[in-house]
Amino acid sequence: MLRIMFMLRVQFQPWSLFFLLSCCLLSGCGSDDAADKPVSPGGEVVTILPPIANEALNQVQVSSTADGKAIIDLSQVVVDPQGLPLLLASVKPLDSGSACSKAVINEGGLSYTIDNSSVDVCYYNYTVQNIPDDEQQGLSASSTSTVVVSEYILSGKLPLIAETTDIVTDINVDLVAKLAGDFPAGYHLDYDLLVMGDGTATADSAANIITYSPVAAGVTRVMYSLVSDSGEDAKAGTVDISVSAAADAMPSAKNFEFTTDINPGGKVTIDVTNTGYCGGVSCISDPDGDALQLTDVYAYNAEILPTPHQDPADTLSNTSFDFSAELPGTYDVSYYVSDHNAGFAVGVVRINVVDNSTILKDWDDITLTSNHELYTAPWQQGQADQIHLSYQHLYQEDNAKGSYSIPLFSWLSADALCTTRGMALPSPNQAKKLYDDFSAQSGISVAKNWPVQRAYWTSALDGDSNAKQYDFQTGTLSSAQKNNSAIATCVAVGVLSGLSTTKNQAYILPSDDYGSIKATVTLRDGSPADGQVVYLYSDADTPLVYDQNVGITDTQGELSANITSTKSGDYWVYANYLTQTKKTQITFIDNPLTRVYFELEPERLAMKIDDHTNVAIKAKYLSGTVVDITGVVDLTSDDDAIASGGSDGLVIAHDSGTTFLRAEYTDNGSTQNAALEVVVLAGPKPVRWANHIDATAACAGYGGLPSRGYNYKYVDGGEFGGGVVQNGNAYYWSSTPSTQNNWETLTPSTDRMKLENWGYGMNQGRGANFVCMDKLVQL
């Protein structure tokens, strides 16, 4: 069932809190009765402000038991501006018909408990309420809590996507193209979508495309999930869409990265008109010169507040917000702007929160001098916990330099961890190369302090359930189940060094012609990188078809693909390798239809009355390609009484004479015609009435009359109808005599589909039906 919700969206208005404060300072919030307001010990009227509820995203592992439970803590995403106590008033699934469980609320603990027994992405609306001295004066705020439940929790949050359209234009969001290297291999779009705002959205799981249809100007959020093909993992994603009333007057908002890292708990003010963020120009603009206002800001697990304006009364030109987050990580903040004339735009700001002070680095990455391959240092518990990286187990390793807690991962988790970093698990040969390069220095444990008391995962699979592990103590390779635990290192194998169009200006279909591209991956020393997976794709809605969308580089580090198109034009083609993407342009040219013809030389057909035959019709294009169009055109006749045409090239002769059959075909913007001369010769009709002497003469030269002693059917499979019936039977002459001047006859079967070896002798002077052998086949 497609999960499309239409609801009142509880959203953070960046100007609302500041405006409320300003209003209260200037006019006491418009109240005429101070007696109804709380009073401070000093006698002043105290205005109770609402709490602030931010969007939350939590990741939990699926339970190993059917009755598993997980606690979702919201205490880090809610705050009261006056420091009042808070309680969690309600938590409700945004789709009551989904498989997501109802929440059990811990009001004072600002948390709730859900069932985590199965993989899913669940959306909840939660409400928090503050508790002043007079509880009746308490206010509330609401927001969204997203929970990702999966077997392997690496990065359950996908990068935010921002789209802009107008009220009459549907948009297709191709997730593979939009996410590029962030689209995880082996995942597909789940059919459940959550639409927060106006419009409708549908999911094409096979193509990984979301189609959104707007119905009103404004802002809409579409929440989706990607599910692994194995059903063991899920990731949550969001598409923020701004819808304007008219396409020619839409404001624009750019995506950009705030390049200065901030510390956990630190605050940064971001003004989207700052020209330093977007290449020397403002990140927002309007084609009509309308004043723009920041109207909405969203971010998971972060606190976003309006930046106080110099003029408290001016709330319509605010363009900045304050951002703060307690936990390290990468945050995507979507911001909306409005021109106050039904024009909207949305952009994304990426902010990095980094705490370098607590990350332990007891060993470093290794770069091999022989080929410059980079191997990442194995994780330590402090590092993994710092960025909330989930691991399966820990083990303690003691060596001459200290004692360390080392995270262990399943093969799927390790593979996903490397992929999300733009790298890959090392192949067995690469692991051996790393081992060999340090064997003279007593191994990587002595030389680089790397942990070695547990094996490392490699990229090599061993059947459906197992993968290969490499032991750096012994230099040996072994097989283990994928759900076992091992150390993970990732290798930066190569660089997507090139993507070129190797064959251009190809004819569009139908054609044997094609365009070609070539992607090249090299190692960091410039030598070819073979065995590397490269993805090829183009923009959504392009007419390009690839002979392969994903492939492995050859010994030259190259992957080539042939491309065809149904439309002419210039198109961008993309190659993605890990997190690297390159593009090249390819051009297709028109291929007009130049000729339609009957495959007869000369184009003339001679037939006999009541003959049936089929002719082939061909179409030829400028490229020289010839296509059989027999089954897609209908034949028309200048004189249906002589010969008629039908589908599949069927021609039927009715009477003697000459006529023309014609075919017309249109393709690639061109229409062509063909004509076939049909001459129908005089001759016997299949069933006629005559005495035996005349019937024998009529069939002379046409195979004669059939012999008694066999069964017959028409060559074209037709039935024996239209004959003269005598004494309840339609008798047909044979060429077999019975007695003097008498001849044997045949009789149609009850279903009239054959002549049967049955009848009786009749005098040759009497009349009977007859059909010549050129129309029959002996059974």
Automatic annotation (TrEMBL):
Gene3D superfamilies: 2.60.40.1080, Immunoglobulins (2.60.40.10). The keyword Signal applies. The keyword ATP-binding does not apply. SUPFAM superfamilies: Invasin/intimin cell-adhesion fragments (SSF49373). Keywords: Signal. InterPro entries: Ig-like_fold, Invasin/intimin_cell_adhesion. Residues 1-34 form the signal peptide. Transmembrane segments: none annotated. This is Big-1 domain-containing protein. It comes from Shewanella violacea (strain JCM 10179 / CIP 106290 / LMG 19151 / DSS12).
